[in-house]
Design a protein that fits this description.
Elements (H helix, E strand, L loop, with lengths): L2 H26 L2 H16 L10 H31 L9 H18 L4 H11 L5 H8 L3 H18 L1
Helix pairs in contact: 1-2, 1-3, 2-3, 5-6, 5-7, 6-7
Amino acid sequence: MSSALSSTVEGLYLAHHTWLTGWLRRRLDCPQSAADLAQDTYVRLLQAREAPQLVEPRAFLTTVAKRVLCNHFRRQALERAYLEALAQVPEHLAPSEEDKALILETLFELDRLLDGLAPRVKRAFLLAQIDGLGHTEIARELGISLATVKRYLHKAALRCYFAL
């Protein structure tokens, strides 16, 4: 990491951390989550390749924090959906707590990998990989042609390949 980036983030942190935490608290109504997401915002800045030239630092922080907040809400929704699906599984077939945590982390990572793909492309990929449906079944489920299914699956597989 460049020293310019590090000093920029340090300066932003010192000057705006309290404000950003308050901004997030008003949106989350939870001081602990707001503090966590404020930290996540600065971590995201530290992971950037270069230091941005800032004219409006709070507007910049707000933009980054909104993305972090969106990811937070998406993860919560994914976790809720997973737990609702688990509630339908008979208790004797339910995974252990450790397995649940691993599965949930895998789902989060898969969601991150597929982020930015069209919803139908994601859906086709998930139908193939998680539900185990074949191309013909996916085409029928989504109401699309077999060629489109193949194109969607290829696009999703490429996204995963290049992300790794």
